[in-house]
UniProtKB/TrEMBL annotation:
GO CC annotation, single: cytoplasm
Keywords: Oxidoreductase
Ranges where the FAD dependent oxidoreductase domain occurs: 51-412
Gene Ontology MF terms: oxidoreductase activity
Organism this protein belongs to: Oceanimonas doudoroffii
Pfam families assigned to the protein according to its UniProt record, in alphabetical order: DAO
Protein name: FAD-dependent oxidoreductase
Gene3D superfamilies: D-Amino Acid Oxidase, subunit A, domain 2, FAD/NAD(P)-binding domain
Top-rank lineage group of the source organism: Bacteria
Amino acid sequence: MPATQPYYPHYDPLHDASPGTAMDYPPSYWRFHAGEPPQDDGPVNGDMEADVVLIGGGFTGLATAMFLAREHGIKAVVLEANQIGWGCSGRNGGQGHLAWGRLSRSQWVRKWGVDVARRLHANSLEGFEVFQSLAEDPDIDCEPQNLGNLLIAHSKQALEGLHQESRLCNKVLGYQTRILDRDTVLNQYVGDQECHGAMLEPVGIAVQPLKLAYGYARAARRLGAKIHTGSPVQHWTTDGKMHYLQTPGGMVRARSVGIATAGYTSPNLNKLTAYRNMPIMANSVWTRPLTDDEIEACGFHSTIFMTDTRKLRYYYRFLPEKRLQIGSRSAISGADAQNPKHLKIVQEAIARKFPALAGIDTPFFSHGWMDISHDMMPRVVQPDPKQSVFYAQGYSGNGVSFSAYASRQMATLIAGGKIKEADLPIFSSPLPSHPLRPLRRFGQRALYKYFQVLDTVR
């Protein structure tokens, strides 16, 4: 379906009632590279009824529809405000980590103890297999690169911390990571001039994220799901066991609803998700294709994906198409999203890490909202057992891989099944709220300034 509205870069989930209606994609390299979107079912056109409605046409909504059909025989209806993969799913770095949320494994141990940490780790390995099976499915066609990942120490102190994290992974969790010295990283992986060493994890798959979303959409529709783009939920009421979802094209009645709107969740959508996530903006930059001389000067020996250890971290990878993709945190509000200083911050990082690329043309720049939970851990839950409402959210910047597993788990819950390890923190409680909700962005500004200082001295 052709877009009826131009892309609006200043959308802010804390201030705008809706992310739009049939809005065009953001100007990312992923959209340029992914080809035409797969066929969908167009906007809702008249009142309709469904057993299950999934709100959000990104990774989670699309994969949940696929699993509902494949494993439970339920043909769901997906309602997407704009386009397939328009939100977080088409704007991330394509890094499929073995990570459930933002907390490190050592933080799991400190927060819940060794036993729970081991169970979470085992759960993450099981969940990653779900993602891997989808990412490497030829019918999904998302250009997977199964190379593991590097956590790059940006300082000597950060490298000491990686040594400790690696020992915990190896000895406590049985997950064999390796510490690499600076020379090994520079000579075998990447010539990042800020690198003091790195931790190599054996598990990690990079993908073309928008193509992954497109693949999920094609699979879901082949199995009988309906995907209605240009159909934002403008109003939601519940009467008894029936939910009434008003869209511009008509009323959709549903017996069960799964919420999969991530960082684009309006506080007005439903009380069960209101202010349960903190939307955080990240940006991403893609350079022009590099010359062979530039590739050699930058030491791009691998297309493994990387993240550095800063609090305000950079995530980056050398793409098979010979472009550098790099991203980091961005504006705090939608109103400031297009401020040139945010692009400049990333361009300066490119120059520090790869001096040969100082001043290089960056023809693609986009930004988008992540769903950061207040305790940095995701949830897949039915938050109120009296209501047939479910959500999978709070991925905290690690949704590429986790969303596949979360979708399968949410599909099980919607179908009335039981999930394994239901007492783990990510399944046993709703997303926490925040006691200082109106002041969160003031706190975010102060925290960013504090993190900038820490990243300089540590």
